[in-house]
Amino acid sequence: MKSNIARWLIAGSLAAATTFGATALASADTAPGGDTATPPPAVEDFAYPGASPFPALKLIRGDGHIVLADCNTATQIQLWSTAATSPSGGPGVCFRVTGSSGYLSLELPQTFMIQTSNERSVRADLTSEGVAQTVDVAKGGAATVGVALGQKPTMLVELRITG
Known about the structure:
The protein has 163 residues and is of the alpha+beta class. It is built from one helix and nine strands; from the N terminus they run αβββββββββ. The chain has one helix at residues 2-29, and strands spanning 58-62, 66-69, 77-81, 92-97, 102-116, 122-128, 131-137, 142-144, 154-161.
């Protein structure tokens, strides 16, 4: 009889272990309740955050190192356009540069001058009636484009800090 009891105990222990093991394996294969959605991985698309305060200015994408600034404060890039008037009344849009390099894709129609401070030089890409043009502006310099040169209106489409 003692051997039968021992056999039942062993058989019961094996059955419990088998059942527990199957439950543990099953629960390890299923997602915990309520946590079925895994958040997507963070991917930077370099889209410019927020809307432009100027209806004619479209900020598209950048690396975050060229940001809109108040023209009444120290700025490093000033864009002159007949399509965008600064809050101070002048025909300008101002940007501050927050690093030694920077990139900004934008659309500013009727740009006629690009001006920089003594700290930064800029490369600007423009288009006029489907024709692309690149202008380099030295530190502390200014470049006139488009109607300021008696040419067709230009749209500024990209700014890059070059020094």
